[in-house]
Automatic annotation (TrEMBL):
It comes from the Bacteria. This is Chromosome partitioning protein, ParB family. The lineage of its organism: Bacteria, Pseudomonadati, Pseudomonadota, Alphaproteobacteria, Rhodobacterales. Residues 90-191 form the ParB-like N-terminal domain. It comes from Pseudorhodobacter antarcticus. One of its GO terms (cellular component) is chromosome.
Amino acid sequence: MSKKRRMFDIDLPEDDGAETFSAEKVLPRAGVGVGVGAGGEGRRGPMASAIVENADSLRSRDEVAAQIRSENDALAHEHVRLKQQGLIVDLIALDQIETYKLTRDRHKGFDEELGELVESIRDLGLSNPIRVEQRSDGRYELVQGYRRIQAYTRLLEETGDTERYGRIPAGIMAKGAALETLYRRMVDENLVRKDISLAEMAQLAVDYAGHPLTDISDPDKAVALLFKSASYSKRSYIRSFIPVVNRLGEVLQFVHEVPRALGLALSARMEEMPGIAAAIKSELADWDNRSVEDELTVLRRFAGEMPEQKAPPLRPGRPTAEAKAKTSFQLSRPQGAAKCVAGAGRLEIRLARDFSTIDRRKLEAAVRSLLDQIE
């Protein structure tokens, strides 16, 4: 009987105390491709790697989106803050701006100084934007800059240049500002101007008190509210002019030309003698072609500033030789309306234009031609 041959010699290693693992601890669960690599280290399969990379990508994308949202929120808050202060400036078409919400504190008569503003804008542009409030219908309501709007309108009419003068730089305020705030903004800007008269400020207080949307019906209280930034003495002067504009505003053509001393004296005199207002109205009722000085002379006489013996013997406006010699009319010119006043020994032409810029010889020739034609 032959011996069986030994096919393999297997030497089992001795137990060296190395830790062993079960297959389920090393191998992944069903569907996850993780196995055992060299040295027993774990290795991700293709699907596991894709899942991990996708999770990392989503996490990075969420972080970027959160950062963008945070930056957008900060920009939105800053935009609202600047807009509330009227610091967001844009070019607004003139025909998109309304001027009806606020009663303007400017006398709506002939503005001799508007021509200077027109020439300044023509030469240098507008250095101070107007301020508007955005309305719910997409249009805008003027808060500050009535004369600047007038100047742009005149330049547009003169030049037809819609690219340059059809739109005006405007600071846009947020919608919904209180009416009191809008009036205060308009008033505070105009307080720094030297040409705004006490009568115009008094008239604004009267109009504000009569506005149906305001909480104040007393013009004296309106002065305290609107002119809070003014000194106590100035508010007192404005209040003194309220009787003047209330009782004589409808008949006075040049109320904005009444100086402070005359206005205070006239107000005190009307308080002492209530019939004076009716007498002044009667004196001026039919005198349509009077000048500024004519009107002030009548007011000075009734205020007691002019001695009675120096007063005109007859009422102005009645058929005296001087009254018949006075006449006034307006002519339409490219620069605006030219107001002409003719009287005994004088001829005035008021036009929003600086005549001192015209060559003297040209101006002299024009005046000589005018005088020759009316001889």
